[in-house]
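Weekly sync, protein design subgroup
Attendees: M.S., D.O., the rotation student, P.L. (late)

Item 1: inverse folding check
M.S. brought a backbone from last month's batch and wanted to see whether the design step gives back something sensible before we order anything. D.O. pointed out we never logged the input encoding, so this time it goes straight into the notes. Structure tokens as presented (275 positions):
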């Protein structure tokens, strides 16, 4: 069995991974520094956390399920204990892209991130429909990148990714640079910002007298049908009135140069702020 050291095992993300590793073809050693996290592992999953030295003894893969701001510090603290050929798995492109991983050509760096369950899906089980994050009941797609290491290690990393993000549908391979375009640029800088604007718009119509539940039902329903047309989920076309609203509305909401968020220097600046 492949020996895996899971750092941050009792945290929000690490706990999800620890749960999905159960029953897998991996021998997992769990590292958690906080007392609350260790108790969570023990009471929730029946897992005892171990010391760093015990976890790294013979480890072939090290999964860093820790915040972006801690990845560099954690990686540096264990570097000397990592044997050549060890794979480090990171769950986000920010820290690797910022150069926070050790300068070790003899280590493999694999990055993987979930797409999360899609807006349009065919889940019929209510638990799966309510699993918005994924990795529990709902199926999701995943994105991965081999930052450095032998090509044969990609399959090894992808197998781990399919385990920790299960249940998985499509598995996509991209470069580290492309993954950074997807997150933070596409998913956070663009999508999350626009969703916050939608929420603020909802608050504004409520402030102007519309019942909140009525406004929320109206907005979410329109997000669903409009997105289904925009992203080709169904055939259809917007009304002339809707197209006219978009023509005049987009310039009011978006700067002309907003697509520069995808420029390498802008992504680098965003990553520096995150990490």
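Designed sequence read out in the meeting:
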């Amino acid at each position: 069995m492949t020996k895996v050291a899971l750092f941050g095992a009792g945290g929000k993300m690490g706990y999800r991974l620890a749960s999905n590793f159960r029953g897998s073809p991996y021998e997992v050693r769990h590292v958690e520094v906080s007392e609350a996290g260790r108790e969570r592992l023990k009471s929730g999953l029946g897992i005892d956390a171990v010391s760093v030295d015990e976890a790294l003894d013979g480890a072939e893969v090290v999964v860093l399920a820790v915040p972006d701001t801690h990845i560099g510090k954690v990686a540096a603290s264990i570097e000397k204990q990592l044997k050549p050929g060890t794979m480090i798995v990171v769950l986000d492109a920010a820290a690797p892209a910022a150069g926070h991983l050790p300068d070790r050509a003899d280590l493999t760096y694999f990055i993987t991130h979930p797409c999360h369950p899609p807006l349009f899906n065919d889940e019929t089980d209510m638990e799966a429909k309510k699993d918005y994050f994924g990795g529990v009941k709902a199926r999701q797609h995943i994105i991965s990148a081999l930052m450095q290491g032998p090509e044969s290690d990609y399959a090894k990393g992808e197998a781990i990714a399919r385990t920790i993000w299960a249940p998985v549908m499509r598995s996509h391979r991209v470069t580290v640079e492309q993954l950074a375009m997807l997150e933070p640029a596409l998913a956070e800088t663009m999508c999350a910002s626009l969703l916050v604007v939608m929420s603020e718009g909802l608050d504004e119509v409520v402030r102007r007298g519309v019942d909140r539940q009525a406004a929320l039902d109206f907005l979410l329903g329109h997000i669903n049908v409009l997105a289904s047309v925009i992203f080709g989920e169904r055939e259809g076309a917007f009304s002339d009135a809707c197209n006219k609203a978009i023509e005049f509305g987009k310039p009011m909401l978006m700067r002309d140069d907003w697509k520069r968020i995808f420029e390498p220097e802008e992504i680098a600046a965003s990553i520096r702020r995150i990490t």
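Discussion: The CA atoms of residues 56 and 82 lie 7 Å apart. The mean pLDDT is 97.
Action: P.L. to compare against the previous round before Friday.
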